[in-house]
Design brief:
- The protein is mostly helical and about 400 residues long.
- It has one domain.
- The chain contains 13 helices and 2 strands; from the N terminus they run ααααββααααααααα.
- A two-stranded antiparallel sheet has the order 1-2.
- Strand 1 and strand 2 form a beta hairpin.
- Helix 11 (about 305-310) crosses helix 12 (about 315-335) and helix 11 (about 305-310) packs parallel to helix 13.
- The protein is globular.
- The N and C termini lie far apart (about 95 Å).
Amino acid sequence: MDKTVVINLLICLTFAISAAIGFIIVPRIVIISRRKGLFDFINERKVHTKQVPRLGGVSFLPALLFSVSFVMGIRYLVGIEVADNISHNVLVETLFLLCSLVVLFFIGLADDLISVSFRYKLLSQVLVAVLMIASGVYVDNMHGFFGMHEIPNWVGYILTVILVCFVINAINLIDGVDGLASGLSSIALASLGVWFLEQHLFVYSMLAFAMLGVIIPFFIYNVFGGKNKIFMGDTGSLLIGYLIAFLSAKLCMISVSGPVFEFRGAPIFIFAILFIPLFDAARVFVERMRAGKSPFYPDKTHIHHKFLALGFSHRQTMVSIVLVEVVVIVVDIILSQYLDITLMFFANIVLGVFMMVVLHRIQSKFDDSEEVEHLKEFNTMSVEKVKNRI
């Protein structure tokens, strides 16, 4: 059998094993959480009103570690080793990646159980970004973005830290509606996994599909779980965000042309597959700073809050936003054949601003109509009270 076919089957096996582990672990996490009273806190910022466990992300790291390690072991046993010219780099990158995931796992778990100051979470994000750079994975090429190609190492290091912190927090902040963060992350991971598969960079594809595999059962329990509903918590969002950032930085070190994804540069590819989380996080940060607040000040101004305010259900909100993300990717694939990468970036920004303006105007009209109905109801009640008195 052809070597490439065997490796493709092994990647499918990685996905299947990770998903199987997820289906085994996630419901048991729900049971343990209910027995121990480990629920998400309910406050004015939350959109849920029932006690729901928030430790779904605890299943992500064990599933990823076991599936990738097991399948890599099989790969070596059948005699398909990583190519000599990249084997050392892959080993170092993987070891530092695992160290980073462990750090974020414990930070996220602590935050889900007892809450952790944002300063400590940001410090941990900077730490894992430094570990990524130490492994040799960092942004070293802008692929023509703003006319830049290869960049000095120190600039790449700074951009890598920004990338890691921004992507992690973008995934964390978009996690406000059932299935939204996991759905958008699944799109990003599947896109990255397919692209690395096209380039025969199988280890990175395996990592993407391993995480995707465990997200699937979580998504099912999160969206359709009913009494067994569970949230991913910070444990899950930190792990997903970091792995996506790691694969994105690796993408910047390589060309991005392929039979499925024909993008002229890695930055626009990354921005396309993460359009909703990145744009929404940037918009919210800017709005908060304009209001004189900290960019990390919690509020209810995210895109999913706007959909909910219009009367959309959680599921309708999730499906609508995920469909927007898919449309953006398809449009960007088409535009990348005709537009410069910088022009594409600004086109995406314009699209995002237009979308938010439309949502804001619809919400304003919706709020005005609700206020009119409320006044009519109030006036009717007042008239009835007068009649009763007479």
